[in-house]
Amino acid sequence: MPARNLRAQEKRLTGLRGRPFRQVASSFLASVIIATGTGPNPRGAQQEQIRQTPPTAVEAGANEAPLSLEEATDLALAANRTLAAARLRREVARGGIDVARERPNPDLTLESERETPHEALTLALPIETASKRRRRIDLASAEAGTGEAEIDRLTVETRNLVRRAYYALAASQRRVAETEELLRIAGKFREAASARFEAGAAPRLEVLQAKLAAAQADNEVNTARGSLRSARTDLNTLLARPPEHPTTISGELDAGAFPEAEAAAEQALLASTELEVLDRRIAEAQARVDLARARQFPDPTVQGTVTRRSAPEFNTGWRAGVTVTLPLFTRHRAEVIVEQRSLSQLRAEREAVAARIRGDVFAAVAVAGAQRQQYVRYRDQILPQAAEIERMAEDSYQSGQTGLVAMLQTLQTTREVRLRSVQAGLDYQVALAELERAIGAPLP
């Protein structure tokens, strides 16, 4: 480096020695930016860059309206990947019907021999008897019906999963709200304890105990928020949304009603998708029995042959024939017996499932009724009384009528009551989900 540049740099550094370090660093960075031309973008360029940045999934869903249960169910039924894969079976079933409609192809045989006649052209056409083609079509149609019943069953299962995830999220939202309210109350008690300590009306031990209770309440808020994120992820998965999508819902834990036990049992026997699947399988088994019986009849093959070069008798001749397989050793009776026994088994299974569904429905109605009664009592009686006790405990402690121990006991009691009320509401919704599963159809 030239000596003149060294002296200029030394002079500049000497002038900066008396300045604060922050000013020196700022001046140095400014000189580097000017020299290299690589400084931060101007404010206008930054704003333009922000405007061009696409919004994230969280930003895109931040202003969405809360979902109702019906809206969440519609989204799940339209976008659920399991259902989408199941619906592809319809094309497979249509292809199976097209295959069943096919007819057997004729055989064309061309012969060239040394003996007379030297050439022969034979056409053989199998003829199906006992309506085998029609019975194949009936079997393929029955299999398609079973596939449709399976799609209906998966639809009901998806609705049930959405109901469970939806109200699990509702309970998590409610739990976060309750724990935040408890944190607010614990904060007020901490402030009251500090005020009494500063006034000389309470020892420092009460301040420390109040701070400990507030810290515990804050810890419970963080735990509730973690459960909320988990429940939202479960619902987003069913809705085919990104896991971090900020989905919110508007459902209440007391929503939903259920019919009487006898009416619910009748609905289950008429509309249960599980019974529908069994009915379609029974129809499919009956079609298999009919096809197996038709296969007991052999199919003849009609043949026609044109011969050439059979001199001196003739130059062109013909012959016709029929080939029939004789059912001496294999008569397909065992196949018929197997299909008949499978049909009997399915019918017995349907009767057992119908009896089990009826019992499950009666049990689920009883549980749902008890859970609803419990939640309604929490909502209408216990929670208002707990709120009144909270206010009385706060006023009593601030006025010095009671000590911190009574206040903390009140806080613990109200905490348990609030969280038990949330759990009671979730238990009621789980009971409705179990009833819906037992019925095998959406609740009215």
Description:
A hairpin with a 6-residue loop joins β1 and β2 (119-126). The protein has helices at residues 3-16, 21-36, 43-52, 57-60, 69-79, 81-87, 89-100, 132-198, 204-238, 261-271, 273-294, 333-398, 404-439; strands at residues 107-112, 119-126, 301-310, 314-323. α8 (132-198) packs antiparallel against α11 (273-294), α8 packs antiparallel against α13 (404-439) and α10 runs antiparallel to α12. It starts with a helix and ends in a 5-residue tail after the last helix. It is an alpha+beta fold and 444 residues long. It has a domain at 66-106 and 131-289 and 343-439: Up-down Bundle (Outer membrane efflux proteins (OEP)), CATH 1.20.1600.10. The protein is built from 13 helices and 4 strands.
Write the SSE topology.
Elements: H1 3-16, H2 21-36, H3 43-52, H4 57-60, H5 69-79, H6 81-87, H7 89-100, E1 107-112, E2 119-126, H8 132-198, H9 204-238, H10 261-271, H11 273-294, E3 301-310, E4 314-323, H12 333-398, H13 404-439
Antiparallel strand pairs: 1-2, 2-3, 3-4
Helix pairs in contact: 5-8, 6-8, 7-8, 8-9, 8-11, 8-12, 8-13, 10-12, 11-12, 12-13
In short:
This protein is of the alpha+beta class. The chain contains 13 helices and four strands. 70% of the residues lie in helices and 8% in strands.
